[in-house]
């Protein structure tokens, strides 16, 4: 996969807002985003991260990349999960911490959460027009490197890794479902369906659970699919129902979808999927191109429901 981890991994504490600070001594690094500089200091232990927030540096394909990880307080719970979060285009890892309740909800149940930082605040999901794709950034390798680095820094169950993403980050999560099904078990794309390119090439090593969330009135990435404008071009995605149906096919689901509706929300569920996988589409009637205000609760609900 071409992943190269930096020999001198550096970390430092961060708050719930933008990560900030200066590099220590010769450990100065340049960061992908001008809006998300990281506080960097020398690691005191390569096998343990203390409770709280840390910015971690990895080198992938010759590029310096960072991510923010939050280690919950208290003794590690049995089989605790690792949740990876991918921000939307033109947002940042620290911005997503500040504007969602993911950190609070996930760590409250004792799970580890990491907010990944895209190249120039974008992701190369293999099909779109973003600065990351034009620069041929390998974000699949970056994700694998983050998981590998965290294995040496904090305990979590390798069978309980989830990826959550919004917009460009959601399409990135769709791509990870196709390319890293051997590592990640649960995928939660929010307001970003599987692209037509991804759908044509997607192959799974094993079945995965998918919980897609889409608003019918999203003005940026249309619920019904088709072309949509990116910062530097355009992309094409399946409709939300088609995207989830594609996952159901890949997972070998033999029943569904069965749809339940209440309070402006419907959930379409496919059943009898291989290896106990679950595929669901949560449709928000109306809505906008935004993280749901209860995204943290929704992710925790899926982690609780599925034996990843």
Give your account of this protein's structure.
The structure is a single chain. This protein is of the alpha/beta class and 308 residues long. It has a single domain, classed as Alpha/Beta hydrolase fold, catalytic domain (Rossmann fold), CATH 3.40.50. It is built from eight helices and 14 strands. It has helices spanning 93-99, 102-108, 131-134, 139-151, 168-179, 196-201, 240-250, 295-305, and strands spanning 10-14, 41-42, 52-60, 63-71, 82-86, 112-116, 161-166, 186-190, 209-215, 226-229, 234-237, 255-262, 265-271, 279-284. Strands 2-1-3-4-6-5-7-8-9-14-13-12 form a twelve-stranded mixed sheet, with helices on both faces. A two-stranded antiparallel ribbon has the order 10-11. α2 packs parallel to α8. The protein is globular, with a radius of gyration of 18 Å. Mean pLDDT is 86; it is low at 1-46.
Summarize the SSE layout with pairings.
Blueprint: E1 10-14, E2 41-42, E3 52-60, E4 63-71, E5 82-86, H1 93-99, H2 102-108, E6 112-116, H3 131-134, H4 139-151, E7 161-166, H5 168-179, E8 186-190, H6 196-201, E9 209-215, E10 226-229, E11 234-237, H7 240-250, E12 255-262, E13 265-271, E14 279-284, H8 295-305
Parallel strand pairs: 5-6, 5-7, 7-8, 8-9, 9-14
Antiparallel strand pairs: 1-2, 1-3, 3-4, 4-6, 10-11, 12-13, 13-14
Helix pairs in contact: 2-8
